């Protein structure tokens, strides 16, 4: 290098080759380094952002149909017969999806996974599944509210129909509270507890045995368990209340069937 400096400036050919080498090296680094926009975390956030926008649009539409059905969908007489049939189909399909998903996730799928998966693996899976689950049932509940409100406008509805609309709105409210408030708090608290448990070399077992035993001698883990239990309890309560509201509406629909 010193010899080159003594000899004088590099020739245009050497300068061009150096520039070309640096340019190729820079391009290789850009290819080798993962882009932030293509990371799984960024993709998940974009997907959740779009899901939130879609759910917000559905909820606003449901509110519009609830308070002004003729403005949003049209008159139910004459050519509106097709709209009535479409509303009935939408209500039944969305209610059935919401009811079935809630039944499976609450009483079947979650219990089976908890009893057969390592606890941290189970928690991470739930952390991915629950936002999608609450987005799905919230969207379905919103469509059910809109369809039922269109079929039974509040001013002309009977007392029973108003109660049923109230049950559907309650289910939507509980699902939204879980999606927007309790589930994010639960996931955040779960990750903090997982970090503490990894430092204590627990969490790879199935069930709660090691956690309960270790918490008796570790105040930090005991305090984290208490916070997690409170938030998770509120989330579970909202989910059960939503399921109960859907159960009441299923009883109403069954009374209307002629088999």
Automatic annotation (TrEMBL):
InterPro entries: TMEM205-like (IPR025423), Xanthocillin_Biosynth-Assoc (IPR053009). It comes from the Eukaryota. One of its GO terms (cellular component) is membrane. The keyword Iron-sulfur does not apply. It is found in: Membrane. Residues 15-26 have a biased composition (Low complexity). Coiled coil: none annotated. The chain crosses the membrane at residues 50-69, 89-112, 132-151, 163-183, 234-254. Residues 93-195 form the TMEM205-like domain. Residues 1-26 are annotated as: Disordered. The keyword tRNA processing does not apply. This is TMEM205-like domain-containing protein. It comes from Aegilops tauschii subsp. strangulata (Goatgrass).
